[in-house]
Write a structure and sequence with these properties.
It contains two helices and five strands; from the N terminus they run βαββββα. It is α+β, with helices and mostly antiparallel strands. A five-stranded mixed β-sheet has the order 1-3-4-5-2. Strand 3 and strand 4 form a beta hairpin.
Length: 134
């Protein structure tokens, strides 16, 4: 049997206009088990709130992310669409963890998780302790 070249391009191959690849948002999962870890990861200074996600995968500012967030004993899994708004590269100063900051979207799911995080953190949000980002 001879080797026959196979065209793997199909109508649903993830290409768009002029054959450009359509990027799908990355899906990340972040379980947070302690209030101190939530404080260190939360980014209250972003308009819709955000969260730092440790990862060694390369991202660019503006990349779309789909995040599944779980918070301590809360059994709810919070699905959040967002965009990369912060990047801490490998080998960053002060031994900061490598990862990305995901800015929550302004939709209902983003606002719901921002509100829930701020309920959990309470007055700690105003603390001057160091975080993963600032």
């Amino acid at each position: 049997m001879a080797d026959v070249p196979v065209n793997t391009m199909t109508a649903n191959s993830g290409t768009g206009i002029a054959g450009a690849t359509v990027a799908r948002p990355s899906v990340l999962s972040l379980p947070i088990r302690e209030k101190a870890a939530l404080y260190a990861a939360y980014m209250p200074y972003l308009t819709n709130g955000g969260i730092f996600v440790p990862t060694n995968k390369p991202y660019k500012i503006g990349d779309e992310i789909y995040l599944i967030l779980t918070l301590m004993e809360d059994t709810t899994k919070y699905p959040i669409a967002g965009k990369v708004a912060w990047i801490t590269p490998a080998g960053a100063n002060n031994s900061k963890a490598q990862g990305i900051g995901v800015h929550f979207s302004g939709d209902e799911s983003g606002q719901r998780v921002k509100q829930r995080i701020e309920e959990i953190l309470g007055a700690a949000i105003g603390s001057s302790r160091a975080t993963h980002t600032l």
